Protein 1
Amino acid sequence: MVGLSLGEKHFIQGGIAQDLRSDARKRLTYRPIYVETGVIPQANGSAAVKMGATEVIASVKAELGKPTSLHPDKGKVAIFVDCSPTAAPAFEGRGGEELSAELSTSLQQCLLGGKSGAGAGIDLSSLSVVEGKICWDLYIDCLVVSTDGNLLDALGAAIKAALSNTGIPRVQVAAGATGDEQPEVDISDEEFLQFDTSGVPVIITLTQVGKHYIVDATAEEESQMSSAISVSVNRHGRICGMTKRGGAGLDPSVILDMISVAKFVSEQLIIKLDSEISAAEAREEE
Amino acid sequence: MRGLQISLNQTQKIRFDRALEKLESLSSKSNSNAAVTVADSIPVNFEDGVLKGHGTSERDGEIVATLCGVVERVNKLVYVRTLRARYKPETGDIIVGRVIEVAPKRWRLEINYSQDAVLMLSSMNLPDGIQRRRTAVDELNMRSIFEENDVICAEVRGFQHDGNLQLQARSQKYGKLERGQLLTIPPYLVKRRKQHFHHLEKYGIDLVLGCNGFIWVGEHVEAKDNMVEDQMSKSEQQSSVSSLNEQEHNYIPLETRQSICRTANAVRVLSVLGFNISVEVITQTVELSSSLNIDIHDMLGAEFYVLVAEAEADRRSLLTKKK
């Protein structure tokens, strides 16, 4: 990230204070979002999302596995993020590992809820095939191709789009399996079940610069932030997860205010994302 | 165009393709014999004594292009110049750069070139305006003139014998650029003109088109007289630590900011579409957007891209008709 001169920083802060950012967005306006689905044909589902200059790709692969003994009726989902060196010179070699780990943890917290599996945005019970014995494991891998701020929102949108593009193969379980035996399964190559993504939340990141919050910060605006809160909100306006970044401490009333702003913004973002995802799938079919 | 990732609906796509076709048909009439792609053979008049430059190679006795670009001939040298090449500085170019290092007696600037440019302390006017020899005290006070990450406008003085690029900023119009935003566009879109500093009086903003692809759009700043500046800078230093409230009063007025954002978005749209950037095109685009009452943020939407492409096609067809 190139540094900014004092004059430029002043310009950015003034813009946010006057509700007219560098590209004339309002504080709560997102950059144009462009979604492309089916970019990785070998995966069960994939999507590429572009928010301004930020570009991420998400892919979903489904494999059969054994559910954990704590939750025999639920499948498993693992989310990994990889920051590609093409995004920034700092990501070369092991430089991007810290950011990748932080993004993976944040995504897991926002989409999968806590360790007990409670409050997960993704419905894990729908991934169960045979209770206690077989379940689907979803491996969601994300790649950051180019970064211009607001990675978490773009990754959340990409995961939502990839999941709506995911087809889980139909599984025929051989009847008559007893006790501890592994039942035989026949994975169909033809029939696919679309994953139900109506409950998948979107992630909204609110960045605080000076006295105001902005949504969808560019890299320049993020360099001026004092703190940021990422909230994942689902279609019904319920909060599925939250992360706070940044060194400045926040008053609890400020956090509650930011959450209500995030809830307000999420309504428009969900509508926008859904229309973009359906437009992308229509384009893919052409 | 590379990477036009805007979702256009059906009618917009048709209009856009039609505008692009019109532009292509207008441009292909001229210079068609100069453009080559890989493995095209380059016609040369004299087979003996021709120097093969960059982007060419010899194959079966004739000269063949290895790059896509335009053929340039200089005496006996024949080479292929690519269109999207890195910025190539020439003496007298006006460029906008960012200070990345304060070194002994010089500043190093990043100017979107393969190396960093050097601005010597002696090529810069001192704050008190007196022409004198730079002393050690001047050297220690270099940071009070330019610091790291400052955006500076300067002129290319030339290349040193060791290959370094030297800049000079002696005139009043060069110097630090504050109160605005810096945009980066591909350098080949900025053609060399007589004037690169533009003061758009109607909007009250300064527009600096750097030949290296850095464009500065900011609030208009009067070129200050050095004597007056010395007295003012003393009083500024006393109140340099300003509280948040004072800073708020210093923010750029909303109308000027709107003009800055409108111009910046016009430059962004033109650079994505790959049109040459010049003051006339920028002002026309800004006037187009304000005459159609397009919200500044909507200038980055699909509809405006199509409108700009159509306007450019009309403009160029008018130019060719005049010829």
Protein 2
Amino acid sequence: MCDDSLFDFLHSEIVAFLYRTADKDDQDQCISKLESLGFRVGQSLVERFTKDCGRFKDDLDIMKFICKDFWNSVFKKQVDNLRTNHQGVYVLQDNRFRFLTQISNGKQFMDTAPRYLAVACGIIRGSLANIGVNSIVTAEVSAMPACKFQIQIQRA
Amino acid sequence: MAVCVAVIAKENYPLYIKAASADSELKFYYTVHTSLDVIEEKVSSAGKNANELRELYLGLLYPTEDYKVYGYVTNTKIKFVIVVESSNSTLRDNEIRSMFKKLHNAYVDMLCNPFYTPGENITSKVFNNTVISMMQE
């Protein structure tokens, strides 16, 4: 299916473009730009995806929706592992993350891998925000192509 | 054949209100505002009663002497309110549900417009036309 590769290539190019056109001093802002890009996308995505499913009962329901239907539609697979401490912190583990599969496994590109997770973090944060859950989403790569997303729900 | 259609944001401010006739606009603003309380009550009570089917359509919120007010809340906490005339007895529940479905679809399409920032007033012509066609049929 050529639409999957279209998104993969477009995403890689967006990341590359932002880093290429940023000044030396602005390199750190690229991650936040990518994240806010994902945020707006996440807001619209979740509106479309939740149109036909029933109302969510609680946070766990929302997280299950994110791990199954949402992850399936955006990243073409389900989340492999969901852990929570029941205090508002959820860790989602994906063993073959869509944007990391094209990069070679191994230590060579570990430093630049987080760039490719920024948009995804934004998408998750935007989706949760529109559902009504304010959160902080961070990601880390332990071993390519697996990565972990940590979602911290903020209670106002 | 709705008399007034309103879209209310998550923070309970109106994003869009359209009334069929311009002189009764203020009355409808008030009606929609008071319906917000009923919506809150229904949503919080639905959360406690897990046996009830969890659907987005809330049904008849409250009847006044001239009008009936129906509500619908999306998963993203956007509320749609439709006011119809009480004398219009031919309007069935199914028709109201399909009106809400159409409204929801139009809202999602409008939100996906990259030139629209979530939270601002709705000025989209397509959305406006959808609502007008709903009020006239």
